[in-house]
């Protein structure tokens, strides 16, 4: 008897492949998805049609991409837009201590605005970056 059957849920699933996969994973790793391997979660999400195959984001990928955007000083709303997530999703996963970085393209863009005499606030709005990031990067340039 499976976990779901013990709870009174019968095999009425419309997605038999998903049901079979979940049953196998639960038998092997237990009932807590936090304990399941990343690849198993990706396969379950694909079977459940939770996202298209062209947009398979693993937790590791999300964390790394989020970290890189935060280190480059992007606004929360800009990060949410780039990651196709909500502001709340980004805020809940925001990194407390960030070491600011910039790419070569960031450096070139910042230099251009500084040479044009733009204020830190104006650069921040234009580049969609945190004011503190702009100030620190201004000192590095």
Main β-sheet: number of strands, strand sense, barrel status?
Answer: none
Mean pLDDT: 82
Extract low-pLDDT stretches: 51-56
What's the overall geometry?
elongated
How many structural domains?
A: 3
Beta-strand portion reads under 5%
* Secondary-structure element pattern, one letter each: HHHHHHHHH
Q: Percent helix among the residues?
A: 55-70%
Structural class, judged by helices and strands? Answer: mainly alpha
**Structure annotation, total helices:** 9
Number of strands: 0
Q: What does the radius of gyration come to? A: 22 Å
Describe this structure in words.
- With 141 residues, this protein is mostly helical.
- It has 3 domains: 3-55, no CATH class; 59-92, no CATH class; 104-140.
- Helix content is 60%, strand content 0%.
- The chain has 9 helices and no strands.
- It has helices at residues 3-6, 16-29, 38-47, 59-71, 76-83, 87-92, 104-115, 120-127, 131-140.
- α8 packs across α9 (131-140).
- Residues 51-56 have low confidence and may be disordered.
């Amino acid at each position: 008897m499976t976990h779901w059957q013990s709870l009174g849920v019968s095999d009425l699933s419309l997605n038999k492949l998903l049901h079979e996969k979940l049953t196998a994973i639960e038998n092997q790793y237990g009932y807590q998805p936090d304990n399941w391997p990343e690849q198993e979660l990706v396969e379950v999400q694909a079977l459940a049609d939770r996202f298209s195959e062209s947009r398979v984001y693993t937790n590791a990928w999300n964390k790394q991409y989020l970290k890189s955007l935060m280190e480059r000083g992007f606004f929360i709303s800009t990060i949410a837009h780039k990651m196709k997530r909500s502001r709340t999703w980004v805020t809940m996963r925001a990194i407390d201590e960030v070491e600011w970085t910039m790419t070569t393209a960031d450096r070139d863009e910042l230099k251009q605005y500084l040479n044009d005499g733009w204020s830190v606030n104006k650069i921040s709005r234009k580049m969609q970056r945190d004011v503190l990031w702009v100030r620190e990067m201004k000192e590095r340039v």
